[in-house]
Design goal:
With about 450 residues, the protein is an alpha/beta fold. The chain has three domains: about 210 residues, P-loop containing nucleotide triphosphate hydrolases (Rossmann fold, 3-Layer(aba) Sandwich), CATH 3.40.50; about 160 residues, P-loop containing nucleotide triphosphate hydrolases (Rossmann fold, 3-Layer(aba) Sandwich); about 70 residues, RRM (RNA recognition motif) domain (Alpha-Beta Plaits, 2-Layer Sandwich), CATH 3.30.70. The protein contains 16 helices and 17 strands. The strands form three sheets. It has a seven-stranded parallel beta sheet with strand order 3-4-2-5-6-1-7, sandwiched between helices. Strands 8-13-12-9-11-10 form a six-stranded parallel beta sheet, with helices on both faces. It has a four-stranded antiparallel beta sheet with strand order 15-16-14-17, sandwiched between helices. Strand 12, helix 13 and strand 13 form a beta-alpha-beta unit. About 0% of the residues have low confidence. Belongs to the DEAD box helicase family. This is ATP-dependent RNA helicase DbpA.
Amino acid sequence: MTDTAFDSLALKADLLSNLASLDYHQMTPIQGQSLPHILAGKDVIAQGKTGSGKTAAFGLGLLQALDVKRFRVQSLVLCPTRELADQVAKEIRRLARSIHNIKVLTLCGGTPFGPQIGSLEHGAHIVVGTPGRIVEHINKGRLKLEDVNCFVLDEADRMLEMGFQPDLETIVAALPAQRQNLLFSATFPAQINSMAKNIMDAPEVIKVASTHEQSSISQHFYEVDSHEAKLEAIRLLIMQHQPESCVIFCNMKKDTQEVAQELLNYGFSAAALNGDLEQRDRDQTLARFANKSINILVATDVAARGLDIDALDAVINYQLSHDPEVHVHRIGRTGRAGSKGIACSLVSLKDTQKVIALEDYLQQTITPESLPPVSVMNQALPVPNMVTLRIDGGKKQKVRPGDILGALTGKTGIDGSTVGKIQVFEFYAYVAVRRDVAKAALKKIQEGKIKGRSFKISRLR
């Protein structure tokens, strides 16, 4: 069994004595698995949620490598929000209490530039910040990163979700090629892998078992014949499973419109996605579904291609696909780490040949089940936690995700943790905020400015 005591690590004596004074004796699973690699100077990708002890893991790594006599920025830590950056900086300062004259500087949006410029002129050893503000300081020539030997991406999945990919690319381009890279993420969407390939060198991958289990898909089939009965079946299934995100697949465009409208009539949060949509409407629908301000997307297979959603709670097949391979691809979009994905398929008597083909392909017998009881309709309708605000300004107006985040979370603003996905298109942008702060968020941007300009903003229903 591996020794999980901090004093089993080859850490500097003053760091070890400070850990003991903080009552840090035993490592958490993520620390125990990642710290030996971090201290050996290797690149590391680790799965870790807030509270897993990841800050101490990378914090001890960068403090161990720090040369306090060299008054240069030697470590850069990126966080998605100001609140997390403040929290991380505070923890690094606690871990560094025994190191004299160490300077940890926080650079975040939503706070005045003046004091940050002054602090940068005085120099720092470690910079913790949000991508947008870091890019602004790099572009103005105020932040020099040529001496950075450790680059940390904390909550990388959330940074990508909030639209910071272009900012991350700008920052990476300003860093020296020879450096250690540490990436911490609660989930592993495909974007994380492609980003890791671009910036990391043979990384060690740490996945702590308690936070990551293999998901599996639970398949259910229901025999329903008429169009009206199918619409009722869909409502029953949604009420039973209460999915936060669900895609309903139809074989024809007209059905997507009809099913979505029927669900809207009953008070569900739904939208249709098909090839007849204008690009702007398609962008808006996908943005709202991806940021969790719409629960249900009713789509054709063609329209759902390239759908960047890899954590659906449920998939419902309004009709079976003509191709068993397409069926497997549809249902493969569901399931989250550590929980079962639900796949429900409605079949009619006319689908006999499709069912036989699917049984052959899956190598299992398909036995239709009974639909949920009508009593499930007595529950409250599933309501999205998020609301989308649309800003009539985008890339052409040089609006970036960091600008929007800063405008929302600045003085008297909302908490950064209540801001969800931010997507910026050519002429407009979408930002998700938690439903309970939507009114305050709308007011903050209406009364304030983004990039020194006023933009029209509306709340999407």
